[in-house]
Amino acid sequence: MSTTRKEVKKKKKQLTPIFKLFLLMLFALGIYFSYRVIKEVYTTIQLRSQLAKVEVQLREIQDENLYLTSQKEKLEDPDYVQSYARGNYMLTKDGEEIYYLPANEDK
Q1: How far apart are CA 3 and CA 106, in angstroms?
Q2: CA dihedral in degrees (56, 62, 63, 66; nearest 10)?
Q3: Residue 51, domain extent
Q4: How far is it, in rounded angstroms, from Cα 92 to Cα 84?
Q5: pTM here?
Q6: Between 70 and 87, whose confidence is greater?
Q7: What is the rounded distance in angstroms from the CA atom of residue 63 to the CA atom of residue 68?
Q8: Among 15-19, 28-32, 73-77, which is the least confidently predicted range?
C-alpha cells in the first residue's frame, strides 16, 4: 500500500503536458502584456515631451499675437502713424527742415 501511495504522489507531482502548455501560454501572455505596457509608457513619455514643446510654441505665438494686436491698434491712431513715420523715415511736413545734430561725445 505504501508503494501505491508513493506512486500516486509521484504522479501528482509530475506536470502533465497540458498543464505545461498552459504554463507556457501564461508565460507568453505575461511577456506580451509586459511589452504592451512598456510600449504605452514610452509613447506617453514621448507625447508629454511633444506637448511641452508645443506649449512653448503656443506661448511664443500668443506673445507675438499680443504684440501685433497692440501695434495694429497703435497704427490706427493717426498721431502715432505720423510720429512713427517722422521718427523712423525722416518724413517732414511741408515747409519743415530736418537738422541732424552730432552725437554728444565727451572728448
Answers
A1: 118
A2: 180
A3: 42-90
A4: 11
A5: 0.56
A6: 70
A7: 9
A8: 15-19
